[in-house]
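Before drawing any conclusions, I looked closely at one protein's amino acid sequence and its C-alpha cells, quoted below without any editing.
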Amino acid sequence: MKLTSGILELISEGLGLESGYFGGKLSETSLLSVNRYPPCPDPSLTLGLPKHCDPNLITILLQGDVCGLQVFKDGEWIGVGPVPNAFVINIGYQLQIISNNKLKGAEHRAVTNSKDARTSAAFFVSPRGDSIIEPARELIKADNRQLYRAFEFREFVSNLRNGKGKSEGALEPFKLQA
C-alpha cells in the first residue's frame, strides 16, 4: 500500500491537488489479479485479454519479462516492452473523471507470445462503492468546464455489469452536455 499511496500522492501533486486527495474512500478497495498466458504457436489465433480501459482509479502492473502488453495509439496497437524491476501504471476511468480529462486511460490489451509463457500481476486500486466520483473542484475553471457529473462509484460498476459501458462508451452516461 505504500507504493500505491506514493504514486497517488505524486499524481495529486502533478494535478495541483491537495496532499492526500486520493486517500480514504477514493483508494480504499484493492484487488490483485495474477494472469498466466501460455505460449501459442500462432498468437493471431488467440488473445490474452481483449481491448479495454481500466474502470478503476489506477492499476499497478508487473508485466514480467515477456512482451504481451499493447496500447492503442494513433490507430494502431503498439507493444509495451517489459522493463526489468519496473511497474506500468495505468490510469483508470475514475482518475480520468477526477482529473476532468487532464489524465486519460489508455485502451490496452494483452496478447500471447509464440515461444514463451507470460505471467503478469495487476494490482487494481478502486474507490469504495459509496464514494462520490466527480471532477476535482480545483481543476474546474472558466476555460476548463466540468465534463462529468457527480455519481457514486457503484453506479459506474452497475453500468459496466449491465453492459451499458463497454470500453470507450463507459464514460458516456456520466458526461455533461456542452
About this structure: The longest strand covers residues 29-37.
